[in-house]
Amino acid sequence: MNQATQRNNERDTECLLLQNVRFEKRMEHLQDLQRELFLEQQNRKKEEFVSPAVRLGNFWYFSRNFVGKPYDVQYRCW
After folding, report:
1. Among residues 63, 67, 69, 66, which one has the least CA distance to residue 51?
2. Mean pLDDT for the stretch of residues 4-33
3. DSSP string, 10-63
4. Cα(44)–Cα(42) distance, rounded to whole angstroms?
5. Do residues 47 and 65 touch, judged by C-beta distance below 8 A?
6. Which of 1, 2, 42, 77 has the greatest count of CB atoms below 10 A from its CB?
7. Alpha-carbon torsion 33, 37, 38, 39, what sign?
8. Torsion of CA 34, 38, 40, 45, to 10 degrees
9. Is the separation of the CB atoms in 34 and 46 below 8 Å?
């Protein structure tokens, strides 16, 4: 990596960090609402849920969630 590329990367990183700070400051008043919505979503989520499998082409697809994880895992099988 040459020096010009490295300077550009550093400048881009600095710009992104400044944008993140600006965004967080503008959204600060919504933090309580975000937390409330997240907790409501987690309370409605069924623990240990496995979706029915759906066939698309040659594969079957389904998803599953795990206790304490904030995301689902997507599966594809033959």
Report:
1. 63
2. 92
3. HHHHHHHHHHHHHHHHHHGGGHHHHHHHHHHHHHHSPTT-BPPPEEETTEEEEE
4. 5
5. yes
6. 42
7. positive
8. 160
9. no
Contact 49, 65 (CB under 8 A): yes
Query: Any idea which residue has 């759906």 for tokens?
Result: 54
Return left, alpha or beta for 41; rule: phi > 0 is left, psi -120 to 50 is alpha, else beta. Answer: alpha
- Per-residue pLDDT tens digits for 32-66: 999 999 889 878 877 788 999 999 999 999 999 88
Angle at 55 between CA 50 and CA 57, to 5 degrees: 145
Q: Which amino acid is at 34?
A: Q
Cα–Cα distance, 27 to 2 (Å, whole number): 38
